[in-house]
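In the design runs reported in the main text, the only information available to the sequence generator was the tokenized backbone. The following block is the verbatim input for one such run; it is reproduced so that readers can re-run the procedure and compare outputs position by position.
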């Protein structure tokens, strides 16, 4: 698996570096234009978050493209690994990509906060150490689950291997997501958005910002249900990659 992971990163290194360079230039332009034109802090923040959102989408597309290439027969013969490792390697790549982007967001927001000279108030009484763990686990799991659904959709589309299979994969993704939400609501009276809001902050007049910790609930039923589904998705992907996917 490590060989595959290293191979994937080497293959995507130039694209990721170029993307991060463009992101840096865009953020510098947003900040410079904001201060020269007297934009409000909220406007600069919104534009910066929009740029990060676009980059995160591109990174996910790159991971999906890498996964699609790895499950082809030719690539599996070129670098022979078990099918499960193709899935795990792409998952790890997606985690690392999002982690790097999150670190950049935190560093950028810290610098922007300092430059703006905002005073902030953190309501530490509302923060519980366990909430950090719960928020991290919830976020990582939901991201992982969505990526598994995307990988399954790619595998199904590749297994079909006909013209129009791309659209079948896209329809399959939305159908699976809708079915999961419907089942969770019917079985547990809970929709698919069970993570909830982790933290909130508001910028008030006078340069005062307030950060609060929100209540996070992770009901056991939907969580176990999604874990079972994830295991089933992985089994289905391994089966399709080994038996059905063509070059």
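Verbatim output:
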């Amino acid at each position: 698996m490590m060989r595959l992971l290293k191979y994937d990163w080497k293959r995507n290194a130039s694209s990721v570096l170029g993307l991060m360079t463009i992101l840096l230039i865009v953020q510098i332009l947003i900040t410079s234009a904001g201060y020269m034109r007297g934009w409000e802090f909220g406007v600069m923040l919104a534009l910066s978050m929009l740029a990060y959102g676009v980059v995160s989408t591109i990174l996910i597309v790159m991971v999906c493209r890498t996964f699609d290439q790895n499950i082809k027969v030719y690539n599996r013969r070129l670098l022979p690994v078990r099918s499960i490792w193709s899935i795990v390697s792409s998952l790890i790549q997606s985690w690392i990509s999002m982690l790097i982007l999150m670190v950049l967001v935190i560093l950028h927001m810290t610098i922007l906060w300092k430059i703006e000279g905002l005073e902030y108030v953190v309501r530490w009484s509302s923060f519980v150490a366990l909430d950090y763990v719960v928020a991290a686990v919830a976020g990582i799991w939901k991201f992982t689950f969505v990526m598994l659904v995307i990988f399954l959709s790619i595998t199904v589309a590749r297994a079909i291997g006909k013209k129009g299979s791309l659209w079948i994969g896209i329809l399959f993704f939305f159908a699976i997501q809708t079915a999961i939400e419907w089942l969770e609501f019917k079985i547990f009276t809970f929709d698919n958005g069970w993570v909830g809001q982790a933290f909130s902050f508001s910028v008030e007049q006078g340069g005062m910002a307030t950060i609060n910790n929100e209540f996070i609930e992770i009901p056991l039923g939907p969580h176990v249900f999604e874990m079972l589904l994830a295991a089933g998705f992985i089994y289905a992907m391994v089966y399709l990659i080994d038996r059905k996917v063509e070059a």
